[in-house]
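Anyone able to model this chain together with 4'-deoxy-4'-aminopyridoxal-5'-phosphate?
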Amino acid sequence: MSRFFDNKLRTVEAYVPGEQPKNVGELIKLNTNESPFPPSPAVIRAVDSAAVRDLRLYPDPTCASLANALSQQFGVEPSQVTFGNGSDELLAFCFHALCGNGAAFADITYGFYKVFAKMFSVAAEIVPLREDYTLAVEDYARCAGTVFIANPNAPTGIALKRGQIEELLQNKERLVIVDEAYVDFGADSAVPLLSKYDNLLVIGTFSKSRQLAGARLGYAVGSEELIADLNTLRFSFNPYNINRLTLLAGEAAVQDAPYFDYCRKLIIENRQYVSEKLRGLGFRVLPSMTNFVFAGPQEGLSGKEYYEALRSRNILVRYFDQDRLREFVRITIGTTDQMDALISATKDILGVEDYDCDY
Ligand code: PMP
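re: yes, here you go
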């Protein structure tokens, strides 16, 4: 740390992203909840050499074409959506600008919330999940600050129903920000509630269900006023936060609904498949509505030991060295072949005969 670093920021503990290994070709990479599938063929066509040549020009700071496409899908006005360089950037704007009364979020949830609260000196009320890792909305009744809910939650994968989000919205003085990074894998979106509640902001991403983690594209949907606030931040920080290629990729991805549905259906099927197999091997698998499962091996094997044993078999999953999470690992749902390899390796680790492979 240099002596020039602002005192306010000296105690910030930066977010640690999942490992992005160099030898990715040799690994089955199930650690950062990316899609195992490539972007839609329409995306690959849109980002062509003409688009690359146009990189000499700045992108459209209003993201008008993409906003039109996404707003139609959500049944809202284009002025009700805006975009971030990943949803992480939009979440940062929310902590920066929309937490005048502080913030409230779960003890076990997306790790970035805590980092942003510290970065922007937001007083954070941490609300513990219940014993079974579920979130009880009544536990937020007395919280005055902006409520951040990852729905489905990460790394548990557990989702709230739309009615539960609606309960949180009854206190109209308080803003509720629902982070729907994983919503497309079977959970209820809160977007339909926007017509009734102006104290709701929904944040989403193209990183998971639209196969564009590397393009960095997130969105926010909310009242025109809330979106104008976020745009004030965008334009005061970096009006060109979405680059030209990402704008094209995003729009093509939104327009290819059949591919979107095809990929998420496969992920949901593979999630059910791997959850059943792991439960059959004695694992505790939390009920996931995401593109990952949070799974704990049977007694005698800790989350860390399982993580390391998989790693030595070239399978990379995510382990969190944190209270209440140590007994689990988070496994991204991949292709059927990748899930079979994971189950095979798990049987090997547990010393269970792999009949599936022999017969
Ligand atoms: N919210 C949650 C709950 C996440 O798990 C992630 C991915 N790490 C994000 C937001 C951020 O996603 P991105 O910045 O790639 O849009």
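The first helix runs from residue 41 to 46.
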